[in-house]
Specification:
The complex is a heterodimer of chains A (about 350) and B (about 850).
Chain A lengths: L7 E4 L3 H11 L3 E4 L5 H6 L7 E4 L9 E3 L5 E3 L5 H5 L2 H6 L1 H8 L4 H4 L4 H5 L12 H6 L40 H7 L3 E6 L3 E6 L19 E7 L6 E7 L10 E9 L5 E9 L6 E2 L13 H11 L13 H19 L8 H9 L6
Parallel strand pairs in A: 1-3, 2-3
Antiparallel strand pairs in A: 4-5, 5-8, 6-7, 6-8, 9-10, 10-11, 11-12
Helix pairs in contact in A: 10-11
Chain B lengths: L18 H5 L15 E7 L5 E7 L1 H5 L3 E6 L23 E2 L5 E7 L2 H9 L2 E6 L6 H6 L14 E9 L2 H6 L3 E9 L11 E6 L5 E5 L4 H12 L6 E5 L14 H13 L3 E4 L2 H7 L6 E9 L5 E11 L7 H10 L1 H4 L5 E8 L15 H18 L3 H6 L7 E2 L5 E2 L4 H12 L1 H4 L7 E11 L14 E7 L5 E5 L8 H13 L6 E5 L16 H28 L6 E4 L2 E4 L6 E3 H12 L2 E7 L19 E12 L6 E11 L6 H20 L5 E3 L8 E3 L18 E6 L21 H13 L2 E2 L6 H12 L5 E2 L13 E3 L26 E3 L6 E4 L3
Helix pairs in contact in B: 6-7, 11-19, 15-16, 16-17, 18-19
The chains are: A alpha+beta (about 350), B alpha+beta (about 850).
The structure holds flavin-adenine dinucleotide and iron/sulfur cluster.
Chain lengths: ~350, ~850
C-alpha cells in the first residue's frame, strides 16, 4: 500500500506551542488536524514536512458554543460530524449543516475538522495523484519533483497541464465549508507567534491562485470560527457531485439572505464554490437587496451570476455541462431562500433535500 | 436416497460457511499474512508509455537503508501469459516497456517504507518509442510494433466466421438496421488490492500465497517462468476480497516475489497500491462495434452481421478469447438463422484488457439489445413482444453451433414485464420518466480449458474420518462468491449432513485436486458435479457397510439428519459417525474422488471452442429511470430482474450475486470508465490512467443503488448440479442496454455508448433540438482488412459444425452421441450426451 514518508510527530498541548513550532521550522512544519487531507497528500508525496504538529491534544480546541449575541463560536478542532449533527446549528444556519453534512463520507466526517476544511488544499486531477503518476506527466508547477529523488534533473515541474500557457495554477477550491461560511459572514481568528491574534472574514481568507490559495500566513493557526446570527436569516447550500456520498464538490452554491417583513431582501450573499481557486463571492448579490425573490428576479440573477463559473478541465464532469447547470443550482438555492421546499423542485431539488444523493 | 423433491440443504436460505469468519475479521486475505523475517517488495514501474530500456542503475537504491536485493528483467528470461498463444509477458520487462506501469525492477527491503524509498532511487534510462494510443492509431500505424507476434503490425488478432449465407439473407430482408455502438472499458474495482507472499517452505519447496482466482494457472506460470518442476511449487489462493476477473491472470508480481524469496531465502511480500491495480487491469475491453441486422416486416430476424474492434492494451492476456466472446453468444438469446461475426483486437500502450464479469459479452449485448429496441420502435412493436416472438428455443443448436439446453428466458421476460407493470405503465410515466427492457445469457462454465488437455476441469476429493467428519478438498478459489459454501452444500446434501459438519480445503495446489479456477461462472456447475460424484461414491461405500450391519438392502437406506436409516422404519439406523466407522471397518480408510468434464461441443470450426457451455443462464430486466429535464441528470429508480438459474442452491447467495451484478452493471451503465489521459506529445507524451483512485474512478455507492426486485426462474438443467446454472455474471449484462432503452423512453434520444452520462444525454438532446440525428455515440466503424471468414453451414442447413474452408479438426462429437434432426431455425437435440 502507499506509505507516508518519514516525519517527526509533535503533539502540541497549547495553541502557543503549535504556533511556536510553526515559527521555528518555517515551511518544514505543517499542522495536522484530522489528517484526512494531509495524510493522503503525504502518501502521494505532495508535501514532505519534517515535523507534523498535531492540534488534537489542545484542550478546548473543539466545541460549539452560542454566545450572548446569538453567534456560534466554533472551535476549529470540531469534527464535521459534530457540527453537522448539532441541533442549534441546524436550526439557525441550516445551510451550514447541509454543507458540512455533505462533506466526504460519515467515516471521514467523524475525523475531519472544520479548521482543516477551511484550509483544505486546492484540488486538480493532475495534482491529486501519486508520485509516479506525476513523474509520468513530468509534474506540474504546483508540485514539482522533490529534491533527493533520482529524477530531479529535467523532471518538468514548471507547466500547468490544465492551461499550459498560463503562468498560474488553476487548482480548484474544493471546500464545502468555506463558501457557506463566507456566505454567512463568518470570521476566523488567526494566531501566530510573530504577530499575535487577528480576525479575518472567511470571505477574505482566500486568494484566486491554486498554489497560494490562503491569505492566512503559513505560521498562523486558525483558532476560532465565529458565525454571526442575523435575525430572520435564511441559508441554503446546493452541491454538485457525481455520487451522494464521498465526492468533493465540482460546483456549489452557498446562499444566505435576510428579508424584511414584506419579503424584500435586506441583505444577501451568494457564493459559488468549486469553480475557481477560491470561493467566489458574487458581486451580483447586492443587486438582490430591496427586491422580492420572484421567479423573474431569480432568473435574472442566475443568468448573470452563472457567468462567473468558468470551470477548468481538472475535476469530474465536462466543463461545458458544469457551466450550463450553474444557473440551475443558483435558481434552486435562491428559491429555497425564499421559502420553496426543495422537495417540490423536481429531481434536482429532491436530491439536494435528501442531502445525501447524486447531486445533493 | 435424497432426490430433488426432498432436498434438505439445497434451496434453503442458509448462512454461508465462511460468513462468520468474514464478519468477525478472521478471514485471512493475502495481505493479512505475515511470516517471521518477511521482506517487502516494491516494483519500479515505467513512467513512459512505450520505450526501449537503455539502462537500469540500481547502485543508489542498493546502498539505501534496508534494501536487500534488486531484481530486474535479467532474472527472468522466460515469458509467460495466461493463454498458450499469448506468452508475451515477462515478470520484469526486458529491453522494452509497453505502458506506463510496466514493471522494470523490484526492490526487496526489510520494511515496506524502505522498499518504497529504495524504489524511488532506482534510475531507469528509457528511450521513448512512438506511442500507440488507441485502436485507430494501431490500425494506421503497424510500426513500431508493440509485440513481435500477432496477426500483423499492431493487430493482435483478427477472426472471421460466417454461418450460412448472411449476405443473401440481409439482401432479402425487408429492413436492415445498421448501428455503430461503443462500450467503454472499465475495471473490476475489487475492494481487495492484489497481494502475494512467496516463501520457501521448510521442506525446501516454493510456496506462493496469493489473491488469485486461478491458482492452477498461477502454478503453471510459475513453473514455466522460474523453470522449476511444478511438483516442487505450491500455490495457495487466499480468500479473495473480490475478483470479478481481475485476479484471473498469473501476475508479474506473483512471479517476482517467488523469485525474490528463492534468492533471499526469506519470505517476500507485496501488496499492490490501488493505482497499481488500475494498471494491472485486465478489465473490460473498450469495444467499438457495427451491427447490421436484417428483419422481416413483422420484426423477425433473418440475419445478423457483427463487427467488433477491441482495444486490447499492451498485452495479450485473455484477449484472443475475449475477441471470440464478442461474437459468441448473440445467437443464444434469439433465433438468428444466419450470422456473421468478425472481430479484431489491437495492441495499444495502455493497461492490458482481459476478462471482467461477463467476459467479452456485455459489449455486443449492449449493442444488440439497444438495436432491438430501435427495431421495435421503428416497426411499432412492443420491445417485449419483439423478443418473445423469436427466442432461441430450448434444447436446440444455434446457427453458430452452440448447444442450448434448458431456457427459462420466456419466463424471465414475462416475469419482469408483469412485475414492472410494463404493459400498463410504459409510455405513461410522464416526461422525463421511462422504462427499458433488455435480456441476456451467459455460460455456466466454458466448455474448454485455457490450455489444451483432456483432463477433468474440476476434481473433488473427500476424506471421511472416524469422528464422523467429512473434509472436502477442491482446487476452486473462493473469491467471495460463496464457492466454499457450494462445495459444503453439495456434500452435505448427499450425505444427509449440514454444511456446518463439512470442512472444506480449497484452492491449494499441493493439497487439493485441480479445479481450473473461479472464472466463466464455472465453479458451481463443474465443482458441484464433481462434489456430488465424490459424495455419492462415499455414500455408497458407507451404505454398503451399514446395509450389512442392519441386514438391509443398501438402496433402502436414507442419509438424513446426521443418520443413516431404513426408509421403511426410520428408527432402525445408526448415526452418521457410526456409519463411517462401519464403512472404515469394512473398506479400510475411506476416501473418494469425483471429477467433472463438460460435454464436448459440436462447434468444430476454428474459434468454436469459445462459447460452448454445459448450460446457459438467461436473464431479463426492466429498469425505470428519471431524467431531469434541465440538467439531464439520470437516476435509475427501480430495477426488476428475473434470472433463469436452473435451481437456486442458496437463496441468500444467489440473490447476492444478482444484486451485485445489477450494481456492477449499473456502474458500467452510468459512470464507470477506465479513462486514459494523453498529454500533448511535445510537452510530455504521457499516456496515463486518468484517475487511478477509488475516489475519482466513479463507481456507484449504496446511495445510487435503486431497489431491486429479484425473481428466480427455476427449471433444473440436466447438466447442472441439482439442476443449477450460473448466477454470478449473467445478471450484469442486461443493465447497460436496459438503461439506454429507458433513457430513450424517457427523453426520446439515444445514447449509443457507455457510460450514459448527463453530458451525453444533454448532447443528444442538443442534436435533436438542432435538427440532427437525436443521438450521442460513435459516428463510424473503420474499414478493416478482414481475413476470409470460416464458412460454416448452420444446423438448419444440414452442417456438421465444421467449416467448409478449414481443415476439419479432431472430432469427438460422434462418439459422444450427438444426433441432429433438421429443423428451423436451430435443429433440435435428440441425444444430448453419451
Ligand atoms: C474521500 C474524501 C472525500 C472528501 N470529500 C470532501 C468534500 O466533499 N468536501 C470537502 O470540503 N472536503 C472533502 N474532503 C477533504 C477533507 O476531508 C475535509 O476537507 C476535512 O474537513 C479536512 O479536515 P482535517 O481535519 O482532516 O484536515 P487536515 O488534513 O488535518 O488538514 C488540512 C489542512 O488544513 C491545515 N489545518 C488544519 N487545521 C488547521 C488550523 N486549525 N489552523 C491552520 N491550519 C490548519 C493543515 O495543515 C492542512 O494543510 C474529502 C477527503 C477525502 C479523503
Ligand atoms: S491547475 Fe495546473 S498547476 Fe495547478 S495543480 Fe493542476 S496542473 Fe498543476
Amino acid at each position: 500500500m502507499m506509505r507516508c514518508p518519514e516525519f517527526r510527530y509533535h503533539a502540541a498541548k497549547t495553541v502557543e506551542e503549535a504556533a511556536s513550532v510553526l515559527a521555528d521550522h518555517g515551511p518544514k512544519a505543517m499542522l495536522l488536524a484530522g489528517g484526512t487531507d494531509v495524510v493522503p497528500n503525504l502518501k502521494r508525496r505532495q508535501h514532505r514536512p519534517e515535523v507534523l504538529v498535531s492540534l488534537r491534544r489542545i484542550p478546548g480546541f473543539a466545541g460549539i458554543s452560542i454566545g450572548g449575541d446569538g453567534a456560534a463560536v466554533i472551535g476549529p478542532g470540531t469534527t464535521l460530524a459534530d457540527l453537522a449533527l448539532d441541533g442549534r446549528v441546524a436550526a439557525e444556519w441550516p445551510g451550514l449543516s447541509r454543507a458540512v453534512g455533505s462533506i466526504a463520507s460519515p467515516l471521514i466526517r467523524a475525523t475531519a475538522t472544520l479548521g482543516g476544511n477551511l484550509c483544505l488544499d486546492t484540488r486538480c486531477n493532475y495534482y491529486n495523484q501519486n508520485y509516479e503518476w506525476r513523474q509520468s506527466i513530468r509534474f506540474c508547477m504546483k508540485a514539482p519533483a522533490p529534491h533527493g529523488s533520482a529524477l530531479t534533473e529535467d523532471a518538468g515541474g514548471s507547466v500547468c497541464w490544465v492551461a499550459p500557457a498560463s503562468p498560474r495554477c488553476w487548482a480548484v477550491s474544493s471546500t464545502d465549508g468555506g463558501p457557506m461560511l463566507a456566505a454567512l459572514g463568518a470570521t476566523v481568528e488567526l494566531r501566530s507567534k510573530a504577530r499575535g491574534k487577528r480576525d479575518i472574514a472567511v470571505a477574505d481568507l482566500y486568494n484566486d491562485d491554486g498554489m497560494l490559495f490562503l491569505k492566512k500566513a503559513p505560521d498562523e493557526v486558525v483558532t476560532r470560527v465565529r458565525v454571526p446570527r442575523a435575525a430572520g436569516q435564511k441559508s441554503a447550500y446546493w452541491k454538485l457531485r457525481r455520487r451522494g456520498s464521498f465526492d468533493f464538490p465540482v460546483l456549489s452554491v452557498a446562499a444566505a439572505a435576510t428579508f424584511s417583513k414584506s419579503g424584500e431582501v435586506t441583505d444577501a450573499r451568494v457564493v459559488l464554490g468549486a469553480v475557481a481557486s477560491m470561493p467566489l463571492v458574487l458581486a451580483e448579490s447586492a443587486s438582490l437587496v430591496g427586491k422580492s425573490l420572484t421567479d423573474d428576479v431569480i432568473a435574472e440573477f442566475a443568468g448573470a451570476a452563472s457567468r462567473h463559473a468558468k470551470p477548468m478541465d481538472n475535476t469530474d464532469f465536462q466543463t461545458a455541462w458544469r457551466r450550463k447547470v450553474t444557473a440551475e443550482f443558483l435558481t434552486g438555492a435562491l428559491r429555497e431562500l425564499r421559502g420553496d421546499d426543495p422537495r417540490t423542485m423536481g429531481q434536482l431539488g429532491r436530491r439536494v433535500a435528501r442531502g445525501a444523493s447524486c447531486l445533493g | 436416497m435424497s432426490t430433488p423433491d426432498n432436498l434438505r440443504v439445497i434451496g434453503k436460505a442458509r448462512r454461508r460457511i465462511d460468513g462468520r469468519a468474514m464478519v468477525l475479521g478472521q478471514t485471512q486475505f493475502a495481505d493479512d499474512l505475515s511470516f517471521p523475517r518477511m521482506l517487502h517488495c516494491r516494483l519500479v514501474r515505467s513512467t513512459v508509455p512505450h520505450a526501449t530500456i537503455r539502462a537500469i542503475h540500481t547502485g543508489r537504491a542498493l546502498a539505501a537503508k534496508g534494501v536487500k536485493a534488486i531484481l530486474t528483467g535479467d532474472h527472468f528470461p522466460i515469458p509467460y501469459g495466461i493463454l498458450p498463444v499469448s506468452q508475451d509477458e515477462h515478470p520484469l520487462c526486458r529491453g522494452r516497456v509497453r505502458m506506463v506501469g510496466d514493471p522494470v525492477a523490484a526492490v526487496i527491503a526489510t520494511t515496506e517504507e524502505e522498499a518504497i524509498e529504495g524504489a524511488l532511487l532506482v534510475e531507469v534510462e528509457l528511450e521513448p518509442l512512438r506511442t500507440i494510443s488507441d485502436p485507430l492509431d494501431a490500425l494506421d500505424h503497424p510500426e513500431p510494433r508493440i509485440h513481435d507476434y500477432g496477426d500483423v503490425g499492431n493487430v493482435h488478432k483478427k477472426v472471421a466466421m460466417e454461418f450460412g449465407e448472411i449476405d443473401a439473407a440481409l439482401a432479402g430482408a425487408d429492413r436492415v438496421f445498421e448501428d455503430v455502438f461503443f462500450y467503454a472499458g472499465n475495471t473490476h474495482l475489487a475492494l481487495e488490492q492484489h497481494a502475494t507472499v512467496g516463501l520457501v517452505e521448510p521442506d525446501g519447496k516454493l510456496c506462493v500465497w496469493s489473491s488469485t482466482q486461478t491458482p492452477h494457472y498461477v502454478h503453471r506460470a510459475l513453473a514455466k517462468a522460474l523453470e522449476i518442476p511444478p511438483h516442487l511449487i505450491r500455490v495457495v489462493a487466499c480468500h479473495n476480497g473480490g475478483g470479478f476477473g481481475g485476479k484471473s491472470d498469473p501476475f508479474n508480481h506473483e512471479i517476482v516475489v517467488a523469485k525474490a524469496a528463492m534468492l533471499t531465502g526469506r519470505p517476500v511480500k507485496i501488496c499492490l497500491t490501488r493505482e497499481e491495480v488500475f494498471y494491472c487491469h485486465r478489465g473490460r475491453h473498450p469495444v467499438l462495434m457495427r451491427m447490421k441486422t436484417g428483419v422481416k416486416k413483422d420484426g423477425t430476424i433473418v440475419g445478423m452481421d457483427l463487427e467488433t474492434l477491441l482495444d486490447g492494451g499492451a498485452y495479450g492476456s485473455y484477449g484472443v478469447a475475449s475477441t471470440f466472446y464478442t461474437g459468441a453468444l448473440q445467437t443464444v438469446t434469439y433465433a438468428i438463422p444466419k450470422y456473421r461475426f468478425r472481430g479484431c483486437r489491437v495492441f495499444t500502450n495502455k493497461p492490458p484488457c482481459g476478462p471482467k464479469r461477463g467476459h467479452g459479452t456485455p459489449q455486443p449485448r449492449f449493442g444488440q439489445e439497444v438495436q432491438l429496441d430501435k427495431i421495435a420502435v421503428s416497426l411499432g412493436i412492443d420491445p417485449a413482444d419483439l423478443r418473445l416472438k423469436q427466442l432461441a428455443p430450448a434444447n436446440s443448436f444455434t446457427a453458430n453451433w452452440m448447444r442450448i439446453g434448458t431456457s427459462g428466458l420466456r419466463a424471465c421476460i414475462e416475469s419482469v414485464v408483469e412485475r414492472s407493470g410494463w404493459r400498463e405503465r410504459r409510455g405513461r410515466l410522464g416526461p422525463g420518466h421511462g422504462m427499458g427492457l433488455a435480456v441476456s445469457t451467459y455460460l455456466s462454465g466454458a466448455g474448454l480449458p485455457i490450455y489444451w488437455n483432456d483432463l477433468p476441469h474440476s476434481g473433488v476429493q473427500l476424506q471421511f474420518d472416524r469422528s464422523g467428519g467429512v473434509t472436502a478438498f477442491c482446487g476452486a478459489a473462493e473469491i467471495g462468491q460463496g464457492s466454499d459454501d457450494v462445495l459444503a452444500a453439495m456434500v452435505a446434501e448427499v450425505l444427509g449432513l449440514t454444511t456446518h459438519d463439512i470442512r472444506v480445503v480449497t484452492g491449494d495446489t499441493s493439497m487439493t485436486p485441480v479445479d481450473l479456477g473461479s472464472y466463466s461462472s464455472r465453479v458451481t456447475l463443474m465443482m458441484g458435479n464433481a462434489a456430488i460424484q465424490a459424495a455419492e461414491r462415499g455414500r455408497d461405500l458407507i451404505a454398503s457397510a451399514v446395509a450389512r450391519k442392519l441386514d438391509l438392502p443398501a438402496d433402502r437406506l436414507v442419509f438424513a439428519g446426521g443418520r443413516v436409516f431404513d426408509a421403511q422404519d426410520p428408527d432402525k439406523g445408526v448415526s452418521f459417525q457410526d456409519a463411517v466407522i462401519l464403512g472404515e471397518a469394512l473398506h479400510g480408510t475411506l476416501g473418494t474422488t469425483g471429477s467433472y468434464k463438460p460435454p464436448p461441443s459440436p462447434a468444430r470450426y476454428k474459434g468454436g471452442g469459445v462459447g460452448p457451455s454445459p448450460a446457459y443462464s438467461f436473464t431479463a430486466a426492466v429498469v425505470e429511470v428519471d431524467v431531469d429535464p434541465r440538467t439531464c441528470w439520470l437516476e435509475v429508480t427501480k430495477v426488476w430482474i428475473a434470472h433463469d438459474i436452473g435451481r437456486v442452491l442458496n437463496p441468500i447467495l444467489a440473490r447476492g450475486q444478482v444484486e451485485g451484478s445489477v450494481y456492477m452493471g449499473l456502474g458500467e451503465a452510468l459512470m464507470e470508465e477506465q479513462a486514459m489521459r494523453r498529454l500533448p506529445a511535445n510537452l510530455s507524451g504521457a499516456l496515463v490512467h486518468k484517475m487511478p483512485s477509488m475516489l475519482e474512478y466513479k463507481s456507484p455507492t449504496t446511495l445510487e443503488m435503486p431497489p431491486v426486485d429479484t425473481v428466480f426462474i427455476e427449471d433444473p438443467d440436466p447438466n447442472g448440479p441439482y439442476g443449477a446454472k450460473e448466477v454470478g455474471q449473467g445478471p450484469l449484462l442486461p443493465m447497460p442496454p436496459a438503461v439506454a432503452n429507458a433513457v430513450f423512453d424517457a427523453v426520446g434520444v439515444r445514447v449509443d455508448e457507455t457510460p450514459i452520462t448527463p453530458e451525453k444525454i444533454a448532447k443528444a438532446i442538443w442534436e435533436r433540438d438542432h435538427g440532427r440525428d437525436p443521438r450521442c455515440g460513435p459516428a463510424s466503424f473503420p474499414s478493416i482488412d478482414w481475413p476470409e471468414a470460416s464458412k460454416v453451414r448452420t444446423p438448419a442447413e444440414g452442417g456438421d459444425g465444421t467449416a467448409s474452408n478449414e481443415k476439419p479438426r479432431k472430432s469427438k462429437l460422434l462418439a459422444s452421441g450427438f444426433r441432429l434432426a433438421p429443423g428451423s431455425p436451430g435443429a433440435k437435440v435428440e441425444g444430448v450426451q453419451s
